[in-house]
Specification:
two-stranded antiparallel sheet, 71% helix
Length: 374
């Protein structure tokens, strides 16, 4: 094994393993069992092959998050609920914490592996992502909110340029340009046809997007460095986030009105929130499994595809104004996503060149001539 993980060698004469001290930036947890073990909702999937694990995780993400999106839009269609997005986030965090605690109790190893400081950072990013995203639905059409969430690449690239001094290739820059143009097109269309459009929603979802762009990389590093479980990640990050949100709501006085409103409509608020939380928790478990096994890039690609399906289903199940500008903006965003995936997997995705196209055309013409002569 690589010296990066601190394992130097095995001494057969003394029957022990010599371990070196890793660098301060790569200190591993002393509780690491196996980086190959994969558990989702308490079920060990390590016995399956990698393709089967990938299929199961993708199917779980698509199934649970599509239902999650349906209930999320259904909740914000309840008259009078739109100002209480942060309270919905509080309820979700509370339920996620309970679910994570129950699942952790079903596992044999209940020790916390990831440091508390890391969880405080993850909790803050998770609060910003979900809270600002939920609140933005009070100002935006649901498909517009989702199309923004598809464009996580843009803040990642901006941060890479200004913070780390990174340089990006033509494909990455083209992907960011296509996503930006698609967002502008989609947003302008929404401002023309949506009855309750407000640029405050654009600001909120943009901030949520920045937090969401960072959280995947932080989670990936923490889970691989310390081999933390999915249930541990959910329990500690969401329970700490619950404290953050509760403190904020108490300080601004937003807790009382939200509780009063939801008490008057318990089925359409707490009932829908429970369904959202159950499906969201299952979806999060599959996303974390994807991150742990295949990396943040694959997880982002899968969740972006799910968001594209959510936009389509939103127009199918909920009545809302429609314009073909939505389609053109969405196609630009999807093309940008394709360019981004292609840029990261050039060796595996070899696109045909102009010479290849000419050769294909010439071959096709010869084949047609030959078939006609026969």
């Amino acid at each position: 094994m690589s010296a990066k993980y601190g394992l130097v060698g095995y001494d057969s004469s003394r029957k022990n393993i010599s371990i070196s001290i890793p660098s301060s930036t790569e200190v591993m947890s002393p509780h690491i069992k196996s980086l190959e073990e994969l558990r989702v909702l308490g079920i060990n999937l390590s016995s399956f092959g990698t393709p089967t694990q990938f299929f199961i995780c993708v199917a779980g993400v698509l199934a649970f998050y599509l239902v999650y999106g349906y209930f999320q839009e259904l909740m914000f269609s309840v008259e009078g609920f739109k100002p209480f997005g942060w309270y919905l986030t509080l309820v979700q965090f509370g339920l996620y914490s309970i679910f994570g605690l129950v699942e952790l109790q079903l596992t044999q190893d209940k020790r916390r592996r990831i440091p508390g400081k890391t969880y405080m950072i993850i909790a803050f990013l998770t609060v910003a992502t979900m809270g600002l995203s939920n609140t933005s639905l009070g100002y935006l059409n649901y498909p517009t909110q989702v199309i923004f969430k598809c464009c996580k690449l843009i803040p990642v690239m901006i941060g890479g340029v200004f913070i780390q001094g990174k340089r990006y290739n033509v494909a990455d820059v083209s992907a960011a340009v296509c996503m930006s143009l698609g967002l502008i097109w989609f947003t302008l269309a929404d401002s023309q046809v949506a009855p309750y459009f407000n640029f405050t929603g654009v600001l909120l979802i943009s901030l949520a997007l920045c937090a969401d762009a960072a959280i995947g990389n932080v989670q990936e590093k923490a889970m691989k460095l310390h081999n933390g479980s999915n249930s541990e990640m959910v329990l500690y990050s969401y329970s700490i986030g619950f404290v953050y949100i509760l403190t904020g709501l108490l300080c601004v006085g937003g807790l009382g009105p939200a509780v009063a409103f939801c008490s008057e409509h318990p089925v359409t608020t707490y009932g829908y929130a429970f369904c959202m939380s159950v499906t969201g928790y299952f979806g999060i478990s599959f996303v974390l499994a994807l991150i742990k096994l295949f990396g943040a890039l694959v997880a982002v690609t899968v969740t972006t595809g799910r968001k594209a399906m959510t936009i389509f289903l939103s127009f199918v199940f909920f009545t809302k104004p429609f314009t073909f500008q939505y389609i053109w903006g969405s196609l630009l965003v999807l093309f940008g996503i394709f360019l981004n995936v292609y840029s990261k997997n050039r060796d595996k995705m070899k696109l045909p060149s102009i010479k290849d196209f000419k050769r294909m055309l010439l071959t096709g013409k010869k084949g047609q001539f030959f078939s006609q002569s026969i």
